[in-house]
Amino acid sequence: MASAALGGGRLGRLIGSDHALFVYGTLQFPEVLTALLGRVPSLEQAELTGWRTAALPRRLYPGLVAAAQRCARGCVLSGLTASEWTILDAFEDEEYDLRQVRLDGRNAPVWTYVWTVAADPVDWERDRFAAEHLASFAARSARWRRDPASFSDSAGPGWSGPVA
């Protein structure tokens, strides 16, 4: 993937090819990836020490925040095309920053989206999300992919919503 194909913004930092992405929230679910990309790229389980997957106020999806002596669990997506990177970047809120991190047990750094504003003090619950929200989240993600302009709220396709 050439960086010229990715344009500016957050993706302008990606130079060269074969970039991997650490995902720790909704993007680790094949249903959401299929809705957004039309396929499931290679997924490999991974952990990131010194970070946690935080619940976010009034949102169904999490944010990655620094947390000493904690460990965020997720997956590494690899084999993404330039157009897939563009889709995933558009899917992420403006409150995320694309940064490189070093995952446990991997030599090469990978990219991830780090949450940059206030997060809840509790962790996001992957299993709860899967049981209560995954089906509707994937369906809404598919609608967003077909017509992103129809989603006007600033929280993007992940939507603010009641999370009890």
UniProtKB/TrEMBL annotation:
It comes from the Bacteria. Keywords: Acyltransferase, Transferase. Signal peptide: none annotated. Residues 21-117 form the Gamma-glutamylcyclotransferase AIG2-like domain. InterPro entries: AIG2-like, AIG2-like_dom, GGCT-like, GGCT-like_sf. One of its GO terms (molecular function) is acyltransferase activity. Pfam families: GGACT. The keyword Disulfide bond does not apply. The keyword Manganese does not apply. PANTHER family: AIG2-LIKE PROTEIN D (PTHR31544). This is Putative gamma-glutamylcyclotransferase. It comes from Nocardia beijingensis.
